[in-house]
Amino acid sequence: MSYPHDPNQPPNYGAAPGYGQQPYGAYAPGPEPDNNLVWAILTTVLCCLPLGIVAIVKSTSVSKLWAAGDFAGAQKAADDAKKWAMWGAIIGIVGSILIVVVYFVFAALIIGASATTSTY
């Protein structure tokens, strides 16, 4: 007798065929990659808003791609999220240091200029 489904399993009425299953021949190569969402959010809030937003968008797509069976795409999105978060943090830190240096240079120029001017 030919069964349309496994006779040891109850029939899956109402579910789409293949719902929740991996595509034929696809298997998860390991655990889902880290989406780096925490780093993306910290970069957005503390360092560099535009690059942090890109990192958040990339990191939120990791789980969606993994669930769809696009394991290579999920890994690439995770790597991209990490890259954008790192660049945002580096730019934010370097920018902050430059702002502090420029502030002290201008403060020194102003103090030096006011010390050499005569009030007579």
TrEMBL record:
Pfam families: CD225 (PF04505)
Keywords: Membrane, Transmembrane, Transmembrane helix
Protein name: Interferon-induced transmembrane protein
Membrane-spanning intervals of the chain: 37-57, 84-111
GO cellular component, one term: membrane
InterPro entries: CD225/Dispanin, CD225/Dispanin_fam
Principal subcellular localization: membrane
Location(s) in or outside the cell: Membrane
Keyword Transmembrane listed: yes
Domain of life: Bacteria
